[in-house]
């Protein structure tokens, strides 16, 4: 008989999404180069957001955190689609003619996140379209492009590196929000 205190196999808590060996995220990957490192973190956080939303219905996804906040998992998906669109398409690719997403009103990405299956489908479809577009653009870039300067709408400028770093920060911050939101919905935590 094996002593349970000496077992080296990872144990999954009942509130975890997947067994550690089945985790689809790229954490602890060994990317080569600066661009691949940023991109790897971005893909990992994107997958984390998907995991946090997995298995929930439209009402649960749209459930607000703490009134009067409009923060919800569905709002986060819409917000992150908006962020991907703004930074990758409009700024990095210079497609300023594109209408910003969820910009009909201030906080439209969160305020419009209602518990309707059609709204959920549209949010995921939009987010996936924007992440695919971003990944297609990133695939054309290399480490030498990281220092390239990009003009901003306010007349300033920044580097591709700074934009990618901002996106990793944005996803990391919202993955933390997603942890708390999911825990409020059904008690599932972390991972």
From TrEMBL:
SUPFAM superfamilies: DinB/YfiT-like putative metalloenzymes. Signal peptide: none annotated. Residues 1-28 are annotated as: Disordered. It comes from the Bacteria. InterPro entries: DinB/YfiT-like (IPR034660), MST-like (IPR007061). It holds the Pfam family MST. This is DinB family protein.
């Amino acid at each position: 008989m094996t002593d349970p205190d000496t077992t080296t196999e990872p144990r999954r808590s009942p509130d975890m999404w997947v067994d550690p060996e089945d985790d689809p995220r790229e954490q602890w990957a060994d990317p080569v180069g600066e661009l691949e490192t940023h991109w790897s973190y971005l893909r990992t956080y994107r997958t984390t957001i998907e995991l946090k939303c997995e298995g929930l219905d439209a009402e649960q996804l749209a459930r607000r955190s703490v009134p009067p906040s409009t923060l919800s998992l569905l709002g986060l998906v819409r917000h992150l689609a908006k962020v991907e669109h703004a930074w990758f398409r409009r700024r990095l690719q210079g497609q300023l003619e594109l209408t910003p997403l969820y910009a009909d009103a201030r906080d439209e990405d969160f305020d419009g996140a209602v518990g309707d299956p059609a709204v959920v489908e549209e949010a995921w479809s939009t987010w996936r379209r924007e992440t695919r577009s971003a990944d297609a653009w990133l695939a054309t870039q290399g480490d030498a492009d990281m220092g390239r300067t990009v003009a901003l709408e306010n007349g300033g400028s920044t580097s591709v590196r700074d934009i990618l770093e901002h996106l990793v920060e944005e996803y990391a911050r919202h993955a933390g929000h997603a942890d708390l939101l999911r825990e409020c919905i059904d008690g599932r935590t972390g991972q």
